[in-house]
Write a structure and sequence with these properties.
single chain; 278 residues; alpha/beta; Metallo-beta-lactamase, Chain A; seven-stranded mixed beta sheet; five-stranded mixed beta sheet; 12 strands; 21% strand; binds zinc ion
Length: 278
């Protein structure tokens, strides 16, 4: 009954999928493309990965599963960039579908890995110590531990790490500013605001602060100025539909401040309903 109630509640909300899936289902191909300026989409159909290019090399956000890495390499070269120019690797959060390929990408590129405090132990343990899951992936050494508000800079490229915990203790929402045709756009890459199936919000001995962390995340997400709405999964921001508009010539297809607000409100509502239900 509890599960059925939860599923029914989910069926009425937007923004699925709400949990991380297996590699085979999520490695489905997707064309790489320039979202805007130096921000490129290089992920699979479901696992969103980004290449942020610059004069001193590139930053990659989300290595995805280890089995996704050849696809990411192909995406980068289709866009005309070199995989070996990746100097920094960042994550949305320490789950296998975003972080499983981290060690392999470090090995292939020699890039520095920067991870939010709260997720460092899981990344260095290859998933060990996760409060919910028992998945394992190749451990990767973290070269720099990030804290809320830290800047990651590479040449003229600047990204800000916002700690948006709850989904994982070090879940990170990335922001940057881009310019196109003389206008500035605030880019937000949401880390995940989702209460996954089975997450215990009340009396969670493995993650005692989970409710306060989700509360904090929604405060942060509401406070961020957003023009270009992106996230760790394409489904957060309606990737397929926006990509079709982009392909048809709408270079502002990913500018969606209203969609961002609706998404954050919807996810907060889902969190509050789940909290009440438990
Ligand atoms: Zn996740």
């Amino acid at each position: 009954m509890r599960i059925a109630g939860w599923a029914a509640a989910l069926a009425t909300t937007v923004g699925a999928p709400l949990y991380c899936q297996t590699a085979a289902a999520t490695n489905q191909e997707f064309p790489p493309f320039q979202v805007m300026a130096n921000v490129y989409y290089i992920g699979t159909a479901q696992l969103a990965s980004y290449l942020i290019t610059g004069d001193q090399g590139s930053i990659l956000i989300n290595p995805d599963f280890e089995s996704s890495v050849p696809f990411l390499q192909a995406s980068v070269s289709k866009l005309g960039f070199r995989f070996s120019d990746i100097k920094i690797v960042l994550l949305s959060h320490a789950h296998d579908d975003h972080a499983g390929g981290t060690a392999l990408i470090k090995k292939l590129t020699g890039a520095r890995l920067m991870v939010m405090d709260g997720d460092v132990a899981e990344i260095e343990g290859g998933g060990a110590g996760d409060f919910q899951y028992h998945s394992h992936w190749p451990p990767a050494k973290v070269d720099r531990t990030l804290h809320d508000g830290d800047e990651v800079a590479l040449g003229s490229t600047r990204l800000i790490a916002h700690k948006t915990p709850g989904h994982t203790p070090g879940c990170t929402t990335w922001t940057t500013e881009v310019r196109q045709d003389g206008k500035r756009y605030q880019v937000v890459i949401v880390g995940s605001p989702n209460v996954n199936p089975g997450y215990r919000l009340r009396g969670n001995k493995q993650y005692a602060g989970i409710v306060a962390d989700f509360e904090r995340t929604f405060r942060v997400l509401h406070s961020l100025p957003c023009d270009i709405f992106l996230g760790a999964h394409g489904a957060y921001f309606d990737l397929p539909a926006k990509y079709q508009r982009w392909k048809a010539g709408d270079k502002l297809a990913f500018v969606d401040p209203e969609g961002y607000k609706l998404y954050v409100n919807d996810r907060e509502k889902a969190f509050r309903e789940e909290l009440r239900r438990q």
